[in-house]
Amino acid sequence: KAKEAGRGQVCFYSDEQTRASRERLEIEARLRLALERQELKVVYQPQIDLKTGELVGAEALLRWFDPQQGAISPAHFIPIAEQSGLILRLGHWVLEQVCEQGLRWQQQGYAPLTLAVNLSPYQVRHGKVLAMVQEVLASTGYPAQFLELELTESALMRQEDEAETLLDELKALGVSLALDDFGTGYSSLAYLKTFPIDVLKIDKSFVDDLESNQDDREIAATIVAMGHTLGLKVLAEGVETEEQFEWLRSLGCDYFQGYLKSPAVSAEEFVRFLQPKRDEG
Ligand code: C2E
Ligand code: MG
Ligand code: MG
Ligand code: MG
């Protein structure tokens, strides 16, 4: 009986696996097409100074609208793009879009702001990310000082020495670096001290229950204190309510992004957040 059940399970598992890998291949094929047909879009979410309310930057986020399936979440298709290596082309495309858009805004007379782009672990480990960033900065002419690259802890944990070298090289280009989803990974003090990071992004999961959860408040307070001790800025992700905003402000957190201000919007819509460039006389 046990044997039967076992066999049944193996069978079920392999069906499930076949189905999953078929779906993966299908999505991958459609994603390739979408890239060619320009069905992908970059949207921008404002990042706000918690004390002054001023716009300090924007995070660029990828959107895919498939004519048949509708909107497909990056949380779903980015991992597939990673498994297939397509992320390298996708990542290049996103960075190029963002740099071109940033430059356009500057040329239109808006005050320059930092645009943040996500790098996936595969891009980071693949080893060509430095050349890729360098190439896009050169070809677009976008000033590196207004580009921020977001990395996750998991992208950096393997081969720490190599990661440190890579981050130093990226920094040497003039870009800034943010650690995304902070608190969900290893959050090791040792690497925080050695890596040339500029911004810690407190993961949304610690922000969600700030009003009610004492532990989360203490975690957030610790991240802020730790970041400030190391001379970093701290940004809270996924802020949705006034209460969360007030807690973060009282904890001394520097910046936030979240639906409380705005979800990510198209470049055209984002213009409403932009300020005219101040006259330097
Ligand atoms: P992430 O980099 O941590 O981005 C933050 C996510 O939180 C975004 O989801 C954003 O839309 C969402 N968010 C922001 N504020 C709020 C809020 O107040 N409430 C809620 N419920 N959500 C909020 P999104 O755009 O679906 O992206 C999911 C993840 O996909 C990103 O997490 C990032 O890891 C990845 N991703 C998105 N675009 C790119 C990209 O261009 N390249 C790479 N490599 N990854 C990307
Ligand atoms: Mg991010
Ligand atoms: Mg995040
Ligand atoms: Mg530093």
From TrEMBL:
<feature type="domain" description="EAL">
    <location>
        <begin position="24"/>
        <end position="278"/>
    </location>
</feature>
<protein>
    <recommendedName>
        <fullName>cyclic-guanylate-specific phosphodiesterase</fullName>
    </recommendedName>
</protein>
